[in-house]
Design brief:
This protein is mostly helical and about 130 residues long. It contains six helices and two strands; from the N terminus they run H-H-H-E-E-H-H-H.
């Protein structure tokens, strides 16, 4: 049986979560101030409510304002986003994703980065992943 996944996030929802992860907590006005090409304040508040309904953020009341915090650990969110990327573009294949990353012309890896990748591969092989 396949595990149920959290609802997917829109680009703007991911941007809002990135801001919350960077700042730890933020009001709607603070989120708005940090968004690229920001929509209106009401739209940001609506997106924060949607993120709250999806279970990605929660709020605390501080006086007359709400302060929003992420509810999912950044590492958990990162893994979920990566799984979605693998499933969507690489048929679930980590090998195809790594090959695509290595093939991107503007990302030349240093010898040190290649050594670290090799160590990660060797560790995964030893752990039987």
């Amino acid at each position: 049986m396949r595990s149920q996944r959290a609802p997917q996030l829109s680009r703007r929802e991911r941007q809002i979560l990135d801001i919350l992860y960077q700042q730890g907590r933020a009001t709607a006005a603070e989120v708005l101030a940090n968004l690229p090409n920001p929509p209106g304040y009401s739209a940001v508040r609506a997106m924060l409510r949607v993120l709250e309904q999806k279970g990605h953020v929660r709020h605390q009341e501080q006086g007359l304002r709400y302060v929003f915090l992420p509810t999912v650990a950044r590492e958990t969110a990162r893994r979920s986003a990566l799984r979605h990327l693998l499933d969507t573009f690489f048929h679930g294949s980590a090998e195809q994703a790594v090959a695509a990353l290595l093939d991107v012309s503007d990302s030349r890896l240093t010898d040190e980065e290649l050594d670290r990748l090799q160590q990660l591969i060797e560790r995964a092989r030893k752990e039987g992943r």
